[in-house]
Design brief:
The complex is a heterodimer. By secondary structure, chain A is mainly beta. Chain A contains 3 helices and 11 strands, in the order ααβββββββαββββ. In chain A, 10% of the residues lie in helices and 62% in strands. Chain A is elongated and about 60 Å long. Chain A starts with a helix and ends with a strand. Chain B has an 8-stranded mixed beta sheet, with helices on both faces. In chain B, helix 3 links the parallel strand 5 and strand 6. Chain B starts with a helix and ends with a helix. The chains are: A mainly beta, B alpha/beta. At the A-B interface, strand 5, strand 6, strand 7, helix 3 and strand 8 of A face helix 5 and helix 6 of B.
């Protein structure tokens, strides 16, 4: 029962963070320690990000993760996203593996008209073929904006004095994404690529740019068995 | 233990009493103003099966100037400077087009370009006091396209037209112009401010309050320093019409309209103005677009961007040309 609870908590946690760290599970299988990552690409905007992961000493491969990303632009850090959660590999047979990730998300948006703060969740499932030097996988994810705080600018308040600032409910947004990830591994280093499509939760409406794209680099620090 | 409960229960009751119910994202009036459908205090006219936010200024017997806003989906708030024509002998009619501003929202599949023309016919009929009353159209941006489409369809119905930077009267011209307008760098703050919002707010076609609010936030680009529009700030607005905007653009892409097919029959002079600061427009595009009319008077409005009628300096530079044109027709 206790194990079930821990797994359930990890699942909930892992659904709330985006998959900023793309991993070669073949190498993670034999690894225990720290992972640092850098990435850039298109994630609802041209953006860059950094990430930290820690692989637990456990029979079931579990990586705790924290990621920060922010879009490019003149104003630094007025828009950003922080994700924290866990990725768990549930199944492995030969080179095939299946994992899920659950993360909690906090994100911020600001433009001249409003500032939005949001708490959300990110859940993903990844199934792929993992070799020591390379991997390719398919991924499916759901990113939910659960609760959002709106603070509108003085300009917007002047245009519409009755506008209501504050925390809004129910959930203000949600997007599905699906695509592929691939990578090349050299010793403690991974070069990774993610690419896919995004569609809103009604499965009909596309966001302004209905794609995601990410190039990443991971560096592992810790104990790795030699293949 | 009892003492703890005695303290805890009132404390909890006070705490809960202090909690206000969180506002709903879907409720009209929270993030965007209510439309005429939900706010009976707004001036409105029932036309062509819908309810339009509309009002008129001046003597109803004077020559009529119908002001057509841009977008599609914007509203007439930014064009209220045009009330000045009412002080100069004109009956000035403003209305938010179908699904725009504070007019009633309709479903996406109910919009058509011809319905927008029928609405205009209805508005003219509602405010016109006699069949001999002159009717001028003053269209800004998309409003200039709508005016031209109307003249192309009903050339005898319109006494004259003032057109301020319509993107084009053929789909290819509109596409070229919009392409230049949207040529932001992928790494720019302005571009990312539009796209980054997509992870915070999503809505289906029935959640128009959310979509309208979202479009309103995106309108910050209209006043951004790196915008080619050249505006001094974001023009004022009531509420953006996201669905009508999406619907009419989709129809444009599908039907690739050409609204110049009968313009050669319209020999009345037309005043065509463009702004000095809109770098996506300029003289060559203005000449190209306006040449669809056989008799056109072209003027550049100095010290103004695309929303030249919304800001004092642009409007003051526009007004003498417009008044002179109206007085001579």
């Amino acid at each position: 029962m206790k194990t079930f609870k821990i797994i359930a908590i990890l699942c909930v946690l892992s659904t709330s963070f985006a998959n900023a760290q793309t991993l070669n599970w073949e190498n993670q299988q034999a690894f225990n320690g720290h992972i640092l990552s850098l990435n850039f690409g298109w994630d609802y905007g041209s953006s860059w990000g950094i990430g930290y992961g820690y692989q637990l000493k456990s029979s079931l491969p579990i990586i705790l993760k924290a990621d920060f990303s922010t879009p490019f632009g003149k104003t630094n850090f007025d828009d950003f996203k922080v994700k924290m959660g866990a990725e768990i590999q549930w199944f492995k047979k030969g080179a095939f593996a299946f994992s899920t990730e659950v993360d909690g998300v906090f994100r911020r948006f600001e433009n001249p008209h409003a500032r939005l703060l949001n708490f959300g969740s990110y859940m993903s499932a990844t199934a792929g073929y993992y070799k020591p030097k390379w991997f390719v996988a398919g991924e499916f994810a759901f990113d939910k904006a659960i609760v959002t705080h709106f603070k509108n600018s003085a300009f917007i308040h002047e245009l519409y004095p009755a506008i209501v600032d504050g925390w809004y409910e129910p959930a203000t947004g949600g997007n599905f994404s699906y695509g592929i990830q691939a990578g090349y591994t050299l010793k403690q280093n991974d070069l990774t690529l993610r690419l896919g499509k995004v569609i809103e939760q009604d499965f009909e409406t596309a966001p302004t740019v209905p794609l995601y794209f990410q190039v990443g680099y991971n560096r592992r620090f810790g104990n790795t068995k030699q293949h | 233990m009892k003492t703890k409960f005695k303290i805890l229960i009132p404390a909890l009751l006070i705490a809960f009493a202090g909690c206000e119910k969180a506002p709903s994202i879907n409720e009209e009036g929270n993030l965007v103003p209510k439309t005429v459908e939900f706010d009976a205090s707004l001036p409105a006219v029932a036309v062509n099966g819908t309810l339009l936010h509309a009002e008129a200024f001046g003597n109803p017997q004077d020559p009529m100037v119908v002001v057509l806003h841009g977008g599609p989906g914007s509203d007439y708030r930014s064009l209220l400077n045009c009330k000045k024509f009412a002080e100069n002998g004109y009956y000035v009619v403003f209305y938010d087009q179908r699904g725009s501003g504070l007019s009633k929202r309709e479903s996406k599949d109910s919009y058509s370009l011809h319905t927008m023309l029928d609405d205009l016919t209805g508005v003219i009929a509602h405010y016109r006091s006699s069949s001999t009353q002159k009717v001028f159209l003053l269209g800004h941006s998309w409003g200039g396209i709508l005016a031209t489409s109307y003249i192309n369809e009903y050339p005898a119905a319109i006494t004259g037209a003032i057109l301020a930077e319509p993107g084009g009267f053929k789909w290819d011209d509109i596409k070229d112009y919009v392409g230049r307008l949207n040529s932001y760098s992928f790494f720019s703050e302005t571009f990312n401010d539009v796209t980054y919002l997509d992870q915070f707010l999503t809505g289906n076609e029935d959640q128009q309050a959310i979509l309208d609010y979202k479009l309103g936030l995106a309108q910050a680009t209209d006043g951004a320093p790196d915008s080619p529009l050249g505006n001094e700030a974001t023009p004022p607005f009531w509420r953006s019409g996201a669905i009508v905007n999406r619907s009419l653009f989709d129809l444009g892409k599908k039907e690739e309209p050409d609204w110049t097919t009968h313009l050669n029959e319209y020999n009345t002079g037309v005043l065509f103005v463009y702004s000095e600061r809109n770098t996506a427009y300029g003289l060559s595009h203005a000449q190209h677009v306006s040449s669809a009319y056989p008799n056109v008077h072209l003027e550049m409005i100095r010290n103004a961007g695309h929303d030249m009628l919304s800001f004092d300096e642009g409007f003051n530079n526009f007004f003498p040309f417009a008044l002179s044109y109206l007085n001579n027709h």
